Each structure stands twice: as structure tokens, then as C-alpha cells.
Amino acid sequence: MVLKVSGLRRAFGPVTILDKFNLEVREGEAVALTGRNGAGKSTLLRCLVGADKPDDGTIEVNGTKLTESAVEIRRDMATVIDDLDFFPDLSVVEHLDLLARAHGLSDPEPVVDEILHEVQLIPQSGQLPGTLSSGQRRRLALATAFVRPRKLLILDEPEQRLDTEGIAWLSGRLKEERENGLAIVFASHEPSLVNTVATRILHLGAARAGEPLAPTRDESLAEPSLTPEDVVAGTPTTAEPGGQQPAQKTTQKQPAKKPRPSQGRKPKTPNQRSTANQRRNR
Ligand SMILES: Nc1ncnc2c1ncn2[C@@H]1O[C@H](COP(=O)(O)OP(=O)(O)OP(=O)(O)O)[C@@H](O)[C@H]1O
């Protein structure tokens, strides 16, 4: 079990957002959190990554209880909760290099160059985050999750500000990560992303002031094959929980089964050369 949440409770004043909330996520499972604005998706994710403190309950990652000092958890958990947390003085490529090195990659450059190519930020690799467009900042935030080892990936509306092509890329990338054994929990309002990536959908419904907490609906999918209409309407599907078998355990990105845009670049493209030059000029 990669993630185990037991009896989680979080209330703000008189409004209970989560109560007696349980969740188990195994390797190779992708759980999509859906529900209306204010349903509690971000609150749950913030608790999972340690950015918010639940009023009650426990969160375990690979058997280790989440505490502020749980280094093992930070090592295993990649997160994209928002895209505002960048060092203003570090360039795009420097951010990714730093993160990869901090997580133990001795030679991060090939990994960093590949993900830069994948998120189409090679032309911007020498820019500071403040000079990126909002969609490019989101792409950088997503790239930070893919340059480091990971067993659990937590994402809050990762589709935000991505263009259509970006959402298609993200859907494919997350599906591939899930098939390679990564456990994923993500909140999304994008049916195509949920449809492609999720093996389970948790439809949250927090209480409004003075109303009882709405039940959480858990829909497990044998194959993530809902139509967008199903996802929006929350149509129940058939499979048992855990029906999706993990292909293999992975802590780092495995070689892709299908060619990615960044593969087969030979020799170095002008864009790659510009990345290398930007590295040299730093
Ligand atoms: N620090 C806080 N203090 C008071 N209320 C809060 C706080 N954080 C969140 N809330 C409330 O908790 C509820 C759940 O918010 P949350 O951000 O988790 O919703 P969400 O499902 O992620 O919504 P959205 O789809 O709009 O992103 C909202 O009513 C919000 O106003």
C-alpha cells in the first residue's frame, strides 16, 4: 500500500470539509478526486502533502506516518499543488537541475533536458520563472515532478492553464506513469484527463454551512474508459477496487514503451544546443 488515509477529519469553523475519510492507494492506481468547487479536493490534497494539518486521522506513505520530519515521505512523494513556489533568481533549467540533484541524481542533465523538451520549455530554459507565461509556469511545475524519483504523485488540477496539446501530453504522461507502477492522486475538473488516467474516481461532496456532509462516492474502474459525460454525471461503473494490476514497481521514470517527442533526437537539435549553451553561460 503506497498511501493509506484513515479517519481523516478537517473542518473550518462550523463547516466540516472531510470527516471519517478513508483512502487506500496501491502501486499502479490513479485516484481522481472530483466534485464541485469547494467540495474539499484541495483541502484533502494539502493534508496529504503536509501543507495543511488535519483535525483528526492519520496519513501513511509506504507505511510511514506523515509528520513534518518524515524525510522518507518527502523522498517518495512528488507534488504539484500550485506553481507559485519557484525561486525568483533561478532559471528554469537551474530549478530542475537543483531539484534532481537534491533528490540524489548524480547526472541530472540528460533527465532534465528530456523533460524540458517534453514540456516544450527548451527555448525558455534560461528564463527566470517570473518571465514565463502562466501556462509555461504550469509546465515547469509539472516538470519538477518528473525529474525526481517518485512512488506517489499528488497533483491538484494539473491541467490548469495548459493548452489543448498540453492536456493531451499530460494525460498520456500520467497514464504511462501509472502503468509503470506509480501511485497517483489528483484533483481535476478536466473529464479527458480523468478519463485517460484514473483507475478510480472519488466524488467528494463537502458540507455547506448548516448542511450535513455529503457522502463521498467511490467509483472503481477496470479500465479508465469513462466518457466525459459519465465523469461529469458520476455514473457508477462496474469493476472491483484494485482491479488494475500494477505493471511493475518503479521509483524513477522507466524507459518509455512508446517513443516520446524527446526520444530519437540525433544529433543534438538546435534547441538542445541552446540549453547546453545556457548551462555553460550560467
Ligand atoms: N484556510 C481556510 N479557512 C477557511 N475555509 C477554508 C480554508 N481552506 C479551505 N476552506 C474552505 O474549504 C472548502 C473546500 O475548499 P477546497 O479548496 O478544498 O475546495 P476544492 O474542492 O478544491 O474546490 P475547487 O474545485 O474550487 O478547487 C471551501 O469552502 C473553502 O472555502
Automatic annotation (TrEMBL):
Molecular function per GO: ATP binding; ATP hydrolysis activity
Comp. bias regions, Polar residues: 269-282
Source organism of the structure: Microlunatus endophyticus
Source species taxonomy: Bacteria, Bacillati, Actinomycetota, Actinomycetes, Propionibacteriales
Compositional bias annotation for Basic residues: 255-268
Keyword Transport: yes
Name the record gives this protein: ABC transporter domain-containing protein
Keyword terms of this UniProt record: ATP-binding, Nucleotide-binding, Transport
CDD domains: ABC_DR_subfamily_A (cd03230)
Domain ABC transporter: start-end pairs: 3-234
Domain of life: Bacteria
Keyword flag Nucleotide-binding: yes
Region (Disordered): 213-282
Family: Belongs to the ABC transporter superfamily.
